[in-house]
UniProtKB/TrEMBL annotation:
GO terms for biological process: polysaccharide biosynthetic process. Its EC number is 2.7.8.6. The chain crosses the membrane at residues 12-39, 51-75, 87-108, 114-134, 278-302. Residues 276-467 form the Bacterial sugar transferase domain. This is Putative Undecaprenyl-phosphate galactose phosphotransferase, wbap. It holds the Pfam family CoA_binding_3. Its main location: membrane. The lineage of its organism: Bacteria, Bacillati, Chloroflexota, Anaerolineae, Anaerolineales. Keywords: Membrane, Transferase, Transmembrane, Transmembrane helix. One of its GO terms (cellular component) is plasma membrane. PANTHER family: COLANIC BIOSYNTHESIS UDP-GLUCOSE LIPID CARRIER TRANSFERASE, SLL5057 PROTEIN. One of its GO terms (molecular function) is undecaprenyl-phosphate galactose phosphotransferase activity.
Length: 472
């Protein structure tokens, strides 16, 4: 699939991404050298700026060439975590090439090891962030992405078109829709219908569209009636029926002409679980070292704002359904739980909202300081204690209330296999705009598709969500 996407490069997108990569990597190299230069009074030594500039040229060339070879230009079809993985691979390989050149030219001793390591780390980070910014900003424009035709029945095509339009960064842009079993005459979410096969072939010939998305089961297109698809479209994407397995880290296998698909539940693998726990603990300890003054300040504000304890303790469902005490800064007036039913009985709209989302946006029980804490998710800082105790992970599905267990249905069987997290996929992708059932689906997606890269991406997204004050 990646080879297919490389054959349909969008020149504008490629130009933007190459420019962004050059700027971000160059900035990373200069910043690394500047940091080392500032530390000369403390660490001694010197910075050879001429060598830094010469190395920068080679380093940028290596990165652009390797990024091209690894399908990062334009990188359509890559989800964010896959792009992050490829970026780190490219930057690491380019760093090795640069190190070999410095060694062969006997310049290794003149190039600071600190600058070399910082360059590797900052280049990967800035390159990722630069690409996220480019895709987030420019994917809104019509010229972004690969134009595609969607073929299939109306009921199966609608959700596919909706997802393709929502996930703009993929670059799969549906422009026409064709239903082989009906003469569609109404657009789907702005995607124009095509009435018959001949009209479609004419449109494709004129517009040079090379990609088609088939939404019906593969068996539907196996008949000789659809052989014309192979003559018209060189690139065909099949939408597989939804299965209760991960979709992010799927590997295809050819079994003597028969296509097989392999997927894994990484988060249920013991070795992967240990890696995740170490990752979460390191991040949590680092965050505690940085945020302890904020803890003290927020505790004082909660105490001065209203009567009641500083911390609020609530029973939550943990791994395997075991109950644990979840800690938060108190954001409500005393006896808030007892007053909930009074609020819902007095306001039918609030009752409907609570039944759908299991929370209230404008909750009258929330204190003044509590509103601020909730907006920036500062009320959840004490849950770092839960992470250290082993009740929670830093990143994972959201912790559910015991009374929500019956509503979770079959999803509980998957979600409760792992520790809940302070932040997670639902918190950064859905937040308050999703219903309770959509929240369950997002939590299941996280568990099914977990990797350390997904956790890194969620960490980055969490920072962005908190800066924007959207809460978690």
């Amino acid at each position: 699939m990646q080879k297919t996407l490389l054959e349909n490069r969008n020149r504008v997108v490629i130009g933007l991404l190459i420019l962004a990569d050059i700027i971000t990597v160059s900035f990373a190299v200069v910043l690394s050298a500047a940091i080392r230069y500032i530390l000369i009074p403390t660490m001694g030594g010197m910075v050879n700026w001429q060598l830094i500039i010469n190395s920068l040229v080679f380093f940028v060339i290596f990165i652009v060439v390797l990024a091209w070879l690894n399908g990062l230009y334009p990188g359509f079809g890559l989800v964010a975590v896959q792009e992050m993985q490829k970026v780190l691979y490219v930057v690491s390989l380019a760093s090795i090439f640069l190190g070999v050149i410095l060694f062969l030219q006997q310049l290794g001793m003149a190039f600071s090891r600190m600058i070399f390591v910082l360059t590797w780390f900052l280049s990967a980070m800035f390159m990722m962030l630069g690409r996220f910014a480019i895709r987030n900003r420019f994917s809104r424009f019509a010229w972004w992405g690969i134009p595609m035709v969607v073929i299939g029945s109306h009921e199966r095509a609608v959700p596919v078109i909706d997802k393709l339009l929502q996930i703009r960064r993929l670059g799969f842009r549906p422009v026409y829709y064709f239903d082989p079993d009906a003469r569609a005459d109404q657009s789907i979410l702005g995607v124009e219908p095509v009435k018959d096969q001949q009209a479609l072939q004419n449109l494709v010939t004129q517009s040079r569209i090379q990609h088609v998305v088939l939404t019906n089961p593969i068996e539907y297109f196996n008949s000789a009636e659809f052989e014309w698809l192979r003559d018209v479209f060189p690139n065909i994407l099949f939408i597989l029926d939804t299965a209760p397995f991960g979709s992010l880290w799927v590997r295809t296998i050819d079994i003597h002409g028969t296509l097989a698909v392999e997927t894994n539940y990484h988060l249920l693998n013991k070795q992967e679980t240990i890696i995740k726990r170490i990752f979460d603990m390191i991040l949590t300890i680092l965050l505690l070292l940085v945020t302890w003054p904020i803890f003290l300040l927020l505790a004082l504000l909660v105490r001065l704002d209203s009567k009641g304890p500083i911390l609020y303790t609530q029973k939550r469902l943990g791994q395997n359904g075991e109950l644990f005490d979840s800690y938060k800064f108190r954001t409500m007036f005393e006896d808030a739980e007892g007053k909930l039913q009074e609020v819902l009985d007095a306001d039918p709209e609030a009752k409907q909202e609570y039944q759908t989302y299991h929370k209230l946006v404008n909750d009258p029980r929330v204190t003044r300081v509590g509103k601020f804490l909730r907006r920036y998710s500062l009320d959840e800082l004490p849950q770092f204690i839960n992470v250290l105790k082993g009740d929670m992970n830093l990143i994972g599905p959201r912790s559910y209330l015991p009374q929500e267990l019956p509503v979770m249905g079959a999803s509980a069987r998957v979600i409760l296999k792992v520790r809940p997290g302070i932040t997670g996929w639902w918190q950064v992708m859905g937040r308050n705009a999703t219903s309770f059932q959509e929240r369950l689906q997002l939590d299941e997606y996280y568990i099914s598709n977990w990797s350390i890269w997904l956790d890194v991406y969620i960490t980055i997204k969490t920072v962005w969500v908190l800066i924007r004050g959207e809460g978690l």
